[in-house]
Request: fold
Amino acid sequence: MERTTLVQHVRQQERMNPGATGEFTSLMNEIMVASKIVSLEVNKAGIGEDILGLTGKINVQGEEVQKLDEFADMTFTKIIGQSETVCAITSEELEYPVIIPPDRNPGKYIFMMDPLDGSSNIDVNVGIGTIFSIYRKISKGIKVTDEDLLQRGDQQIAAGYVIYGSSTMFVYTSGKGVHGFTLDPALGEFFLSHPNIKIPKQGSTYSINEGNTEIWCEEQKNFIQYLKEKDPATNRPYRLRYIGTLVSDFHRTLLKGGIFMYPRDTTNKNGKLRFAFEAAPLGFIIKDAGGRASTGEKNILDIVPTEIHQRVPLYIGSTHDVDLAEKYLATPSLHVEKKPATPLTGKEKPATQEG
Ligand code: P6P
Reply:
């Protein structure tokens, strides 16, 4: 059986672009090399390698930095930074962008990444991943400006993610379909395993942290209540699946359908997830797979960010399910919530035994 490698696939796709210079293929190759190095480290974690645990540092997001976070950020930044294909790199882990100086022969692309998403799951052997996004430098002159770093979501030219899970998978789109590759650890090569992924128009799974229920708006609560009700005619109740690693929850949603949600709430007024490093790249992928990504009010890909670490609410997955979420959020009391029984305090007297 013919096995297509990731680089062969990217080269074939790039050849479809008139005037392609091969620079995009080179960049994708460097991303692949960095992901193999991180995959090796993630899979060694815990075997005598002092790579687990915290560094004792706090990143720009106010989150504790794990050793693997730092390793992944350094690996991608170093390898992509010396690839001569990018002029700037922004990372969820770095407060400011890395600008490639003129003497290091900067390229025409801007590389954005969450180097290791889901790092709170590292120590419990749950899937974690890298998310990346590629834009073209659009400002005039050699200087990198905000015009380059704060582009609208649909100006991406490619996006992808790597999942370091039961197997290491590399999923990407350059606007010509979403394609998945699985790493053959014996050969150290990614081979095409999921060509042209398409998400079902409607799913039967919802993915959200229900521990936040009390800090959601009423409309959000009503929507979740609706999904839980029994009605076979509308494919309900939906099943709840929540891993707590965005890349893993997204990958399942992409393959099986359904909806992943990280709403705004009274704690995270703009949601928790980042536009540039999570919502925009996954929104670019889901659109090419036939799904949708929304803030609950507007398309993710229509957003022009005002700052690099901007957060947004995220509703992403099957078109039918994202459309329905938007309808609920726009229609207060569309579905009157059944008042829950008075919660038990545990101090109630035991009921007298009848008979
Ligand atoms: P919560 C992981 O820390 C992350 O950034 C995403 O990967 C994940 O979807 C989300 O946060 C989980 O957040 O509040 O449910 O723990």
